[in-house]
Amino acid sequence: MLPDAPAETRFQETQRLGQNPIVRYIMFAEPVFIGLIFLVIGRSAGRGAWLPLLLAWGAMGVALPVLLSRLTMTTAVTDQHLAIRWSRFYRKQIPLHAITDAEPIRYDPISMAGGWGIKYSRKLGLVLNVYGDRGVKVSAGDKRYLIGSQKPDELAEAALQGAIESSPARQ
Question: What is the pTM of this model?
Fold first, then answer.
């Protein structure tokens, strides 16, 4: 359960950036590519440059892929909010009573959303995704969101059901 979330959780999903096959390929290829670059630089720079280059390769070639593999996006629908947390870097809570629509979609993450991560698209609004080509388009007042999900039908259903149950007209 997300921290600070109410007791009732209608839906929860955690996705890892390391699940993304493109990111996995980059995580494998990046240390090799950086190592080759540093090898060329080291040969031309002489003997004294090897230790700093080796330390830089360790930081860029090993630590960066490990960090990327640990990044997660957790999406939860509680009895009050649709909450999205992108690791420790970003949090967004959308009050359920503000949600007017939640539609599961299949989309091209590269051409429609500019890839994976946290970004803004004129067509889709705020995009939050880490993996795959499925998600939920959410409308909340004049704001639009695309939330990537491997379970878009369940997420949309939980968000819409929560929106109906928390609407001011019902209370």
Answer: 0.76
